């Protein structure tokens, strides 16, 4: 039996720290960041018959055109400039019939299919619990993305505002340890992208 949830990909940020449209910045193979970020999510969505929807903002015409050309479903959040919470809420309200939501970031080009598949396996085993990857640092588990939310959190997710994301509503979560943090690094600055280029070419 296939799991009954969907994947929301947050791609409505302003890229203010990057200085340009980071999601379309070219990576080591001349493909944009978002191409690599979406690849494992699309692969697992196809394998497990999951719906996928990218959340964008209205003025990112270049990205919206790219998603249209690639036939990737997306929805435009009118309040995206007010923070990630608004984008998440819009994604939930745009897909209210899903029984759960895996919320991923569009600026994680090192994300792998193995990580997503591991999350899906644990989601199937724990369908009513928040599930997310983590990395062990200094004897603490540091939660990372993507994050799965079950239907229980629908109302609270749909009411999020501001830029705090969904961490304030999580009551309990199941953390899946990931050995290599580099798989889950997100791109905030040109230096982050150069770091990935360097590690890929080593």
Description:
The termini are far apart. The chain is globular and about 40 Å long. It is an alpha/beta fold and 202 residues long. It has a single domain (6-201), classed as Alpha-Beta Complex (Spore Coat Polysaccharide Biosynthesis Protein SpsA, Chain A), CATH 3.90.550.10. Helices cover 33% and strands 21% of the residues.
Rg to the nearest angstrom?
Answer: 16 Å
Task: Describe the sheet with the most strands.
Answer: 5 strands, mixed
Helix fraction, binned, reads 25-40%
Which regions are unreliable across 5 or more consecutive residues at pLDDT < 50?
197-202
Architecture (CATH level 2) name:
Alpha-Beta Complex
Mean pLDDT rating? 87
The level-1 CATH class: Alpha Beta
How would you concisely characterize the structure shown here?
The protein is α/β, with parallel strands linked by helices. It contains six helices and eight strands, in the order βαβαβαβαβββαβα.
Keywords:
single chain, 202 residues, alpha/beta, Spore Coat Polysaccharide Biosynthesis Protein SpsA, Chain A, 5-stranded mixed β-sheet, 3-stranded mixed β-sheet, 33% helix, globular, disordered C terminus
């Amino acid at each position: 039996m296939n799991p009954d949830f969907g994947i929301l990909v947050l791609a409505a940020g302003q890229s203010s720290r990057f200085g340009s449209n980071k999601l379309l910045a070219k990576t080591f193979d001349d493909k944009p960041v978002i191409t690599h970020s979406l690849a494992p999510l699309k692969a697992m969505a196809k394998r497990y018959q999951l719906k996928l929807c990218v959340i964008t903002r209205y003025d990112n015409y270049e990205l919206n055109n790219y998603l249209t050309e690639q036939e990737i479903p997306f929805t435009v959040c009118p309040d995206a400039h007010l923070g990630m919470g608004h984008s998440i809420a819009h994604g939930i309200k745009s897909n209210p019939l899903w029984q759960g939501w895996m919320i991923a970031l569009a600026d994680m080009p090192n994300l792998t299919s193995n990580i997503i598949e591991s999350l899906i396996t644990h989601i199937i085993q724990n369908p009513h619990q928040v599930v997310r990857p983590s990395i062990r640092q200094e004897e603490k588990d540091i939660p990372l993305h993507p994050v799965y939310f079950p239907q229980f959190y629908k109302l609270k997710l749909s009411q999020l505002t501001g830029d705090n994301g969904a961490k304030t509503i999580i009551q309990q979560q199941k953390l899946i340890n990931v050995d290599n943090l580099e798989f889950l690094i997100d791109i905030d600055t040109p230096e982050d992208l150069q770091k990935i280029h360097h590690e890929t070419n080593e």
